[in-house]
Amino acid sequence: MAKHFKLDLSQRPRRLRRTAGRRALVAETVVRAQDLIAPLFVIDGKGAPEPISSMPGVARFNITDLVEECRELYALGVLAVALFPKLDAKLKDELGTQALNKKTLILRAVRAVKAALPELTVITDVALDPYTSHGHDGVLNAAKDDVDNDRTVAILCEMAILQAEAGVDFVAPSDMMDGRVGAVRKALDAAGYTDVGILAYSAKYNSAYYGPFREAVGSAQAAGTRLLSKATYQMNPANRREALHEVLLDVEEGADIVMVKPAGLYLDIIREVRDAVECPVAAYQISGEYAQIHAAAKLGWLDLVRSRDESLLAIKRAGADLILTYFAKDVAKALGKS
Questions:
Q1: Does 14 have pLDDT greater than 70?
Q2: Which superfamily does 32-337 belong to?
Q3: Is the pTM value of this prediction over 0.90?
């Protein structure tokens, strides 16, 4: 009987999934190379790239190699990079004073990249964690039990101006201090950098998944642990409405792009933000998200390429216009072959 059984259906959704061509024709979400921003780590000196053990395929580059990596990314269609420095521990102190050195590593890196690739969009981090001996994103208060919000913001404004002078396209305050977007916008405008944009880490959660990144920039070693708590300034993972409050404040203060971080664990937040604002929305697929996909694939539990691509599709489908991801180069290569 089953052999001759036919349902009387006018709607058969599987018709649209019957062939690869049909599936591509009606695909609602597409990840393109130009949707991706590649986070890159830079170190001083002339040594070979330093692999980051917890992030397979990711390395710290000296400035010369960083420029070449940027050339490769741009040729593949990745049109933006986000740069993060790893300083020698000897240069770090409690106030993060190296951040305001006009010859500091990140500023030299920006100048080199922009000289070689003026068309490439360069984004720089505005936070003190790569520069402080304690690993926090700002300077500590007198009791040394929390970050001093307003003193930190004053330093961030100076950092942003120096980065603008070096030629960045966007500064990216990632510190989660109150009022820092408005203060940075005013400082940039007053200094004549009205064309430098702000990509704000607007809803940045106090995630357990930042460990590999802290290894990459050396803030974990500075603090003595990759489990350093930043709960007094980064957002509580339990909160959703608070994210919208933070995002809307940043938009009001002058953010050109707002961002949710992490991405894959906060798809609901990305969708809430996308529905709430008119400006572009970015999401950061962070180091721990990247590392866990690689780890599971290494154990044979997941297919690396399919898991990678699905993770990015989910972030884009949730509403992100732009995705910071350590998979950027590999995905761009794959897209170029398809």
A1: yes
A2: Aldolase class I (3.20.20.70)
A3: yes
